[in-house]
Queue: 3 jobs
Job 1
Amino acid sequence: MTFTTHTGNRGLVLEEKLIFEQGQPGRTGVDLPEPKGTKTRLGGLDRESDVGLPGLSEPQVVRHFTRMSQKNFGIDSGFFPLGSCTMKHNPRLNEKVARLPGISDLHPMQPESTVQGALELIDQCAHWLLVLTGMPAVSMSPAAGAQGELCGMMAIRAALDARGENRRRVLVPESAHGTNPATAAACGFTVDSIPATEDGRVDLAAFEAKLGDDVAGIMLTNPNTCGLFERDVRKIADLVHAAGGYFYCDGANFNAIVGRVRPADLGIDAMHINLHKTFSTPHGGGGPGSGPVVFSDALAPYAPIPYVVRTENGFHLVETADEEDGKKPFGRLKGFHGQMGMFVRALTYMKSHGADGLRQASGDAVLNANYLLARLKDKLSVAFPGYCMHEALFDDSFLKDTDVSTLDFAKAIIDEGFHPMTMYFPLVVHGALLIEPTETETKESIDQFCDAILSLVAKAESGDAEFFKNAPYLTPRRRLDETAAARKPVLRWKPETA
Amino acid sequence: MTFTTHTGNRGLVLEEKLIFEQGQPGRTGVDLPEPKGTKTRLGGLDRESDVGLPGLSEPQVVRHFTRMSQKNFGIDSGFFPLGSCTMKHNPRLNEKVARLPGISDLHPMQPESTVQGALELIDQCAHWLLVLTGMPAVSMSPAAGAQGELCGMMAIRAALDARGENRRRVLVPESAHGTNPATAAACGFTVDSIPATEDGRVDLAAFEAKLGDDVAGIMLTNPNTCGLFERDVRKIADLVHAAGGYFYCDGANFNAIVGRVRPADLGIDAMHINLHKTFSTPHGGGGPGSGPVVFSDALAPYAPIPYVVRTENGFHLVETADEEDGKKPFGRLKGFHGQMGMFVRALTYMKSHGADGLRQASGDAVLNANYLLARLKDKLSVAFPGYCMHEALFDDSFLKDTDVSTLDFAKAIIDEGFHPMTMYFPLVVHGALLIEPTETETKESIDQFCDAILSLVAKAESGDAEFFKNAPYLTPRRRLDETAAARKPVLRWKPETA
Amino acid sequence: MRYLPLTRADRAAMLEAIGASSVDELYSDVPEGALLDAPVDLPSHLGEMQVERDMMALASKNIGASSVPSFLGAGAYRHHVPATVDYIIQRGEFLTAYTPYQPEIAQGTLQYLFEFQTQVASITGMDVANASMWDGATSCAEAVLMACRATRRKKAVLSGGVHPHYREVTETYCQYSDTEVAGRDGNPEQQASVEELNDLIDDQTACVVVQYPDVFGRVQDHTQLAEVCHAKGALLVVVFTEAVAFGAIKSPGSFGADIVCGEGQSIGNALNYGGPYVGLFATTQKLVRQMPGRLCGETVDQDGKRGFVLTLSTREQHIRREKATSNICTNSGLCSLAFTVHMSLLGEDGYRRLATLNHENACKTADALDAVSGVTVVNDSFFNEFTVKLSKPAAEVVETLVSKGVLGGVPLSRLYPNRSDLDHYLLIAVTETNTDEDIAALVGALKEALA
Amino acid sequence: MRYLPLTRADRAAMLEAIGASSVDELYSDVPEGALLDAPVDLPSHLGEMQVERDMMALASKNIGASSVPSFLGAGAYRHHVPATVDYIIQRGEFLTAYTPYQPEIAQGTLQYLFEFQTQVASITGMDVANASMWDGATSCAEAVLMACRATRRKKAVLSGGVHPHYREVTETYCQYSDTEVAGRDGNPEQQASVEELNDLIDDQTACVVVQYPDVFGRVQDHTQLAEVCHAKGALLVVVFTEAVAFGAIKSPGSFGADIVCGEGQSIGNALNYGGPYVGLFATTQKLVRQMPGRLCGETVDQDGKRGFVLTLSTREQHIRREKATSNICTNSGLCSLAFTVHMSLLGEDGYRRLATLNHENACKTADALDAVSGVTVVNDSFFNEFTVKLSKPAAEVVETLVSKGVLGGVPLSRLYPNRSDLDHYLLIAVTETNTDEDIAALVGALKEALA
Ligand SMILES: Cc1ncc(COP(=O)(O)O)c(C=O)c1O
Ligand SMILES: Cc1ncc(COP(=O)(O)O)c(C=O)c1O
């Protein structure tokens, strides 16, 4: 029965105003001692006007954010096969450990003698990453994958500068994530696209043709964003090296191969690792992440400050560029020393799995993706032939005659109780649907998803395009008008002018 | 648009099977070391058969309970005016403090020297309760309000026994909570009901008439379950004392008077305090609670073991009946020493409020209830005239000609996004609706509730009884068949027999 | 005050709507002189930081059981509780809900109660279980009262192996309802025989209560006792303090017990210095309607979908008042959720392995202690707890161990303060949380203490 | 393994459905020899209890900042974070969601981002703010790059009052994009004048960057500087490290700043040994389309109900690729939630009072230190942090203080390792968390250390 309630609430789905619409002067959610009225020493800049913050009591605040949370879908809610994002289970143990006072309550400028455990933790985390990648060096400071890319590409710039070479062209496959070209540009490189082959990999011939002495290197994602292993990765490495360039590997998809393939064995020079993907630090609705970068011997000297070294007197944090002989750090990427809160979670995750569990995890991730692929391949249009890695890519040709778009299809999936896959990425495929189940999903959950997808395909084929165009129907908000939002942006609340 | 999804899910509202329907042999949510295979010493009683527990992975378990939680309404969700239950805000600070290892990780049988802080905490909590009630003694052990009643009534039995008197009749107002007669009966008393007056209080004349030398005492709730202060409470105390009986006060509604009226000043002999109501320890979906009982001098010697005393050498826990001279404990009510986890929360709550804040809280609770009463009194039928205390009571006469029952009306409230009030209690009022907003609600939230109620009254009056009979419409489950449940009880899951 | 949203302006507007001149006016029914006009003599409100520091100061005056090698049991057991458990029970939708009287918006609570009941029934080997009691000791008392109702008899025989707190609570509950509690305190050196208990059963005996494993840690078969009871028209009640045990030993249900109840703290719940804990209560299909406490049952909603409700409430105080099967109302809801979550994580394999590890660790400790001069392990059988006899009074030894940084066990004198014959006995519990270093520390400290 | 639900039977069934004989077969694209056939050389999996103990052992090798009197700032500040904050950010629906690309099931995240943006704009006094950057230092660098885009110029002048990490990160970001970073390191004894900075502004200067309060704690008015900048076609960028400050001092927006950005850790976020933190980034309406990072905007849904979406994404890498305003993708989502929750609790009154308390505590400490022989307070003005000159090298003194159980501040030599002229300076931060006892401990320890 459809009807409108007086409140606008719908049972357990409660409408929630902005905090700014709920405040009352004189209300507060904290109790702070009365100030003494000391004469200020604020350089005459004492604030005189109101800030404009609303006053809410603690109960209001708790309810506000509780209700808002209930309008979100997370991994804890259900199947979340967002391709390229590795939405795996986030263990609560990691949250608990990250909150130990001996970890969360450390100031980054404490004397080293008071943070030996923290430095050891960073060192341990680094050690696991080095062994898993087979690489000789790692920089722990990048704040996320994109900053990891910056870190790697700057090291390449620094290495080229050291060689006195002015190489400025970077080869980037068309299928690359947007951060790759953006990063290359931020480092002063020009981006040269490499086309993909029919089977979703780098076109080796085209790649080779593009090599030259102005080529700084290649940024290659492997497994790539089509969910495929770059078969020719070693050849690519050899070729780029032979041409005097470096091999930056985007490691966003490391989850497919952890404990089974060491990137070092493929000939890479640098690779970032998204701890918030492969090593399960929570995505947090957009972050924070962490993007450590492993380096080959060729690039290691240029790794940024700071970094941890083990000395006779314990662990030491190198914070200046000129402290160590033979090191030529390209600079500093971030305040302080990296995403400690993420290291502790990632290390907890790695220790929990162990070498055996990590290997099992990547195998299960690939198995789940291939199973999903097998179940859907007859009804959806598989983008590229063969086995996939940890994610399965489809194009929208299965929707060809239905007047249903990838977006429409995804919105209908929402009503079925799933988070949609990644849509329209990678760009090399028309109307892409990139599905990454991860290893922490059950076969039952994948089966349920596949059954629902197949039922939707049947519905689309039956000609009910209107149904899809208006989906979703069952969510707290239905399809939102993004065009209107961009046309006349309202980016903050403002008091109504009376 | 109404339609059925393939999965049965509806957007963010996800169907969730029982764990027993999700298990797989060989799956587990814990990693425990391999046993060594030691020869057992289990007296030959080694388990040979399966227990019958399902195997789930940790991600499944997290998702299972997350989804289930989303089908619940709590104080954190919205307005929860469940009369007689004091559903006030539960501060997270209290949860945090209760988890300090120095509190949560104490074994109840640790030597006293290792738990001095715990004993001091109990003593502090007791002190606050004593000052707030004005009483000379308190027993901290009762597990909940009902056990507090048991504690108080057993002390009365013990005192009577000590006096060599065989008084077995207990006077209990008709409006009393079910636990009162149940408790009296459990202590070997017979229950004699006292009627209520037109204005919802004890009928003094009827009460007086029932007094006699077989009367052990009275169990009186004050403020009473009609949300009213018993005006004649002192007279009642005097009369029952004069008749040789004791005055047990049900303190479930203490929230109305904390910091404003000391029960001691009203002449009571014993009163339980529901820490999970007045002092905000979370209701937890049904418990745990805690029901300390304060005693007058007359009953104090009979208080049960254990209890904390302050000695020269620190705090000491008296665990045996014969340890202290002059004390004649009636026994032991519970394993160990009471609901420590609740004491810490209640004490944190009390310290946060302070004497000033507690007084403000009770005043605001009463103000909120009277405001709600004022807003609804013209359209709903007020049970009794005058101001109420912390809750407002209505009967169902406003629904008289509508063919809508109190239950139907309550179910329609659910769709509006509120938890219904207490229904059909107290029994002295026909189709009772007992509404307790508590002090942690805003005026805005009470206004929204009242507006919704008034709109529903209008709807009921408009003759749309069918609408109410089929409510709620917007919940994960609609009205449940309680008759069927009771007729052929299915109280556990059983594997399907093939 | 941070929890109180009403502003001055709100209060004024509300008083006006009410038509009252002040909040005090709303209290006009309070007798002359009883309405205080100023705050009571207690400290003023404090900010969160100050309160937290106050409470931390109290906490710091205690020695946390996990901060040192620790071997205490006697009805409460330290086990590792997965972080998931604590996360789930803190979710506001569980934490801040109450008894699920409105099932349409309480399916979360109701479904876990149904799962809890099934788990409890499964581990105890019984047909059905309720939605929790306050703790093991009160469950024991309620079991006796239930047996009396079911048999219309007025006497209970308690085995000497029953935990003294369980016995005391049972006696307390029974003393004012003309119910006799028979049977004597136990002896760690000698186990009560079926014959002994049999002699105490008469035609007024509603039940015999045994603990399994018993308070001294012994594991005994009660199949024969069940037969004896049933032959005499009495029920067999089996109580327990360590719910992990049933992962390693036969279920009480397999003996033919009529009521099985006890403490569920071990699974999912912290030690909390003794509470809140969670009473588990299971029985046979036949006796369901005599059960105390809440029950959750399966049903369907108006649309035919499966759902859950509280059921058979005609047993309960809010319906039956003085005729109710118990006065219990608020129970141990959230603790039962913790139990359910932990048990769900364990599953068949985890639960059984956990029990095995407990037992193996206890065996290892028993062997190590038996080799210490001045220590004799008394038990032939045990699960994760056993009694040792010391060459010195146990209470003193325990104090000495504290000074050496070891929480060494529970002296029987703490449980039996009037039994001087038990002064030299110490109860030692060993769980999966105890490391080899813990055991070595206990052995070392005991050697020194007894030297 | 507890996180991996596939059973042996599942794996077999799935391989069969796939038509593969083994999991290794799925890796057939991996080059010869690169596919490992055994686990790498790292420890095996561990149970939760073991891992927790391992991590606790690491934690116990550190001295928690709150476990001793502690006065460290320099870009990260210890404040009391209400328990509510940590509860909310742990709710799975927030914690385990990702960037809200599907707004229909991400209104929770989107609404708080909208609130966050409004709060940040409010405290900075700017028109709009984005949905967070990685931290204060990267925000500073991005602000410079944005200024260059907006002005089509290629030089930034950084005031000496800018935190060295912010400067270094800005230099790092600029070095490979032909952007000059001018201006020299600061001096605690002498503040850069408007004239000095003015002299550095040329027609290639995109912006001047000042910190407010500056790295030495000084509070300076930049209204005139804004005018100077604007007159020369440059933007004024104001960075900050202590977001609590704006509760007590005028907003940078009131100076006429064009971009205001900095560190939001202070509000809602733990120290975390330096990360994750949350970069706040605000600007004027005019410059919105030059902003880096995500933006949340208001709109309506198909039924006309208000809702929120990510918007103006044509600025971003996933749409614009090499032409994007920044490469940022994953930002500081959950840290911005923590900020939003804490700020919501504070409200106008709480935010301002918190700032006042910080300032008063800092004044009290400054006075107490000034009275210590060998200590001179350098600052005339400050908010909650100031610089003192010591009679001995600060780094040594800080080590001595550690041995006396005090975390006494940040020696400027840590921030400026190559500036021997700053060796005797110590940066001291004081917040509402510091008690009178803390201050006395610092004073006492300093007296001893300097004696
Ligand atoms: C293939 C790929 N590369 C890089 C990134 C950027 O990583 P981050 O979001 O951590 O900056 C992503 C993130 O989605 C990605 O999928
Ligand atoms: C008036 C009254 N008395 C007693 C009780 C019993 O308290 P408890 O549920 O804590 O046992 C209640 C609980 O709702 C009550 O409302």
Job 2
Amino acid sequence: MIDILYFAWVRERIGLPKERLETDAATVAALVEELKSREDRYAVAFADTSALRVALDQELSDFSASLVGVREVAFFPPMTGG
Amino acid sequence: MIDILYFAWVRERIGLPKERLETDAATVAALVEELKSREDRYAVAFADTSALRVALDQELSDFSASLVGVREVAFFPPMTGG
Amino acid sequence: MSVRVQSEPFDFGAECAGFGQGGKNVGAVVTFLGVVRDDSGTLNRMEIEHYPGMTEKAIAAMVNEARNRWSLADILVIHRHGSLKPGEPIMMVATAARHRVAAFEAAEFLMDYLKSRAPFWKKEVAADGAEWVAATDNDEIALKRW
Amino acid sequence: MSVRVQSEPFDFGAECAGFGQGGKNVGAVVTFLGVVRDDSGTLNRMEIEHYPGMTEKAIAAMVNEARNRWSLADILVIHRHGSLKPGEPIMMVATAARHRVAAFEAAEFLMDYLKSRAPFWKKEVAADGAEWVAATDNDEIALKRW
């Protein structure tokens, strides 16, 4: 089981802030493909992953990273703090 | 008549903050030579003019500048504000 | 060293008042305050979303990196989330050091990193609609300085 | 825009409290505070001499130059002269702008120029003697950035 979090317009497009998933995806990219195949709203949110960032267990990572041992994946647009 | 002001260690070496002088010196450098010839304390204060700065009528200038029309000359070490 | 992530307002003057001024070896304090702008004059509010947990970790990592790079007597970072009105303080950074260059550089370093590596997202809500603030290329370029 | 040259202390927190935060287009405020350091632990006081008349003119010229180079909503410069104790505020600069880069650059520009182009001279008076603070090569090098 893996927790998936969405922030900012990713959250708005998918329509929820968080979900828990059983997945066999080995990488972030594979997880994204799995999500896109589920419903249109995921396909829209993940249409251009170059516009997205991903964090694994609250550390910035990238889409080629492995999900082995990861408990929390977060997807969001580039940050705009400060 | 010209007002001459001294600041920081230039003032301390010469022993006064300000004096008024009648001079025919055409340039700052000529004025410095005239002062140095007056007394040892001036010679000591002006021994190394590369360590000094000069302002003419409250604007930074240099030792080759003309004194024509100048009412106030100030000598001081490099500034250390801030 | 202090990091606060909060929805409550903070008092910039009060935070500046005593910051970093206790020690004998502090010669320079730099503070930065970020404020909600209203360029168009139509902004109703700014909503700041964040990633609880990761936010605190990410800022702590930046603060540690700043302490490694510069000799700093003190650091303060405050960043708000939630709903903010035009003119309200969003966040602040303060640094204290012996010399001005370290205090300035550390403050700018923290700002550049907070801007694009701390998980905050700003949404501008105006009378005619809401829009997520987009990150700019300059935000990434700013990081290359460090 | 405000420039004050004074012997009286000033209250850094109070000066920061409302600075630059009135306008709709201010997104960034940077402040710098300079404090009397006591590295050796033997400093009795710092005496700051200045050139009345020229000081105000020189600072006004720097402030005007900063306004020409950056789009600034407000600038504040306060510089003290006279006798100061360790830990006391010497001077401060504050800048307000739309964006952080302008606010930071203008504050650093003003600091670099105040350091070596405003007619102030610092003397450190310790138990074992008094010494004029020497300008450093770095002070002049800092100006080349602008």
Job 3
Amino acid sequence: MAETDLNQTLQMSFGDEQEEMSVAERMAAEALIVDVDGFEGPLDLLLTLSRTQKVDLRKISILELAQQYLDFVERAKRLRLELAADYLVMAAWLAFLKSRLLLPPDPTEEGPSGEELAAHLAFQLERLQAMRDAAAKLMARDRLGRDFFARGVPENVERVRKVTFTATLLDLMQGYARLRTRDEFRPFIMDRDSVFTMEEALERMRGLIGYAGAWTDILSYLPVGWENDPKKRRSATAATFAASLELAKEGKVFIRQSETFAPIEVRKRDGRDE
Amino acid sequence: MSDDINASEPEAEVVEQVVEQEESLFEAPPVAEQERMCEAILFASAEPVTVKEMNDRMPHGCDAAEALVHLRKRYEGRGVHVVKVGDAWAMRTAADLGFLMQKETVETRKLSRAAVETLAIIAYHQPVTRAEIEEIRGVSVSRGTVDQLLEMEWIRFGRRKMTPGRPVTFVVTQSFLDHFGLSSPRDLPGLKELRAAGLLENRPPPGTIPLGVNSDEDDDGMVIDDGQSEMFED
Amino acid sequence: MSDDINASEPEAEVVEQVVEQEESLFEAPPVAEQERMCEAILFASAEPVTVKEMNDRMPHGCDAAEALVHLRKRYEGRGVHVVKVGDAWAMRTAADLGFLMQKETVETRKLSRAAVETLAIIAYHQPVTRAEIEEIRGVSVSRGTVDQLLEMEWIRFGRRKMTPGRPVTFVVTQSFLDHFGLSSPRDLPGLKELRAAGLLENRPPPGTIPLGVNSDEDDDGMVIDDGQSEMFED
């Protein structure tokens, strides 16, 4: 612990007060006036303080310990030592614990008793000490690279990657078929599924156009079931448009569009147009 | 220490042989030969090697686990030992001969007290959350401390705790076991005594105790210690 | 196991003791112990170690040279050997176990389109020259593709064609037939069957010859073997 180095600096600023103390007092003070940064938090400080009681951690007097801690904090305050908030929180809590331990239990009061709280604190101290001892035992073990050693020239395991290629008879047949057609082989039916041809559109429109005495959006000629799927809708729209042009060319219909992107409309050409 | 191997061997062998009869045209090499193979594999590697990896590298039908039993015995009392490191095996020089080795080894960064304590807490309480570590140490754990241990590959993230917030846990690694010459976390010094004394329990504090840790997190993590006991029970 | 050592121990010890009385306050460790030391040093050293270096590192009165004789004998026939490297000594894995230092991973990949097409042409038209393959595919055939198929042992060189330049031909192999489950190249489905299977049922691009008719092959200027044309007449 970094107690010693900071002791001196602390003591210099501590001057006057020390002069008033007896030697014994001063010794005690020196033991406690330490660099707060040297502690790993309030629990660590409590553990250090508990050592002065020189008893089994299970038999420690929490009351006495609380008083020691409070004295320490008091002293640090006199030294105008900046204490971290958690040290002060612990001080407040210990003051509360002290009062609980000293006063007869108030039956109306909720929450754990002073004894329970003290027991838990004792447990925490014991556990922290146990972990420190365990850490020390761990670090004292024979260690790799210090006491025992691994192979000095490890041999690398060479990774041999073997790639095997494979193909199926179907791959072979498809490959050959592709060559014989000079075109990418694609299943036929899938392709035609969402294609609406102009011939089909023409046939459909010829049947319906007789009823189109008024201007009608060509989109109303899309076959049933082709309006929703975007692929089908595109194909049917294109085919219907092409069929409309064809009908216009044949002189069967008039076709118009009021502006760009406006609906394209057709109307039957009839007697009144002659 | 090798009970776990012996225990599972008989069945393993039966399975192996059945598979073999179907799959392999060649008989597995004799056990003495398998032992040589394990010896060469372990000898050549600075890192521990798992039984599975050995089996993968050895010819079909070999049983590295069995060969290891023989190999280990052969190296008993020698200048080099066959040691178990977690699920894996390694060859290491005998610790009593450390004085012979040139101390040219790179001086490892000295671990801070905080790092050493954090490491011990993780080893003994694993899987453990950051909040639990803080509860035990009574002080918040700095990022740097955990990062250093992660970087040294002595700890790694374990599975998340099934508590509110699902906090991550830390566990020790194979490198940790290797470094400290432990064949399993169960071999940690004093583990049994600590457990018997109840010092590895996560005892919830009566009411709220302000031990420098954000207590809300504590409540989450604290309740459970199944994971920890699981880890060490066999 | 340690008989060889014990045998030579008594004399060694006598010699040792004489030297010692003059030079050392401590007795040299027994030979068996010296052997352990050599073992550990050789195992852990990154470089081969000379006898002098070993003696310098071992306690006073040790004789590394003698210990090495025993150590070397101990490792005879093992998976690891003690070998002399120049003036120095080292431990090495046995040469016959070198295969263990490799980890083979087998990856299966699909044959490239170019390779499949080339293979298909060879299978359907064999024996076929490279020029003919290129004619059918409409692109030049890379050396790599043919080499790959040769290496896979799916094709081999056939007899030379009795045409100007006497070009080599390619034919498929028995391995090819085995892989594709064919008893002869004639088992390959003909064009009619391909069409029946829906594989050729594509709209013919404008200007191409109708499919499934083998007249186009003749038009191509292909030199067609009897065997091959037979294949498509059914």
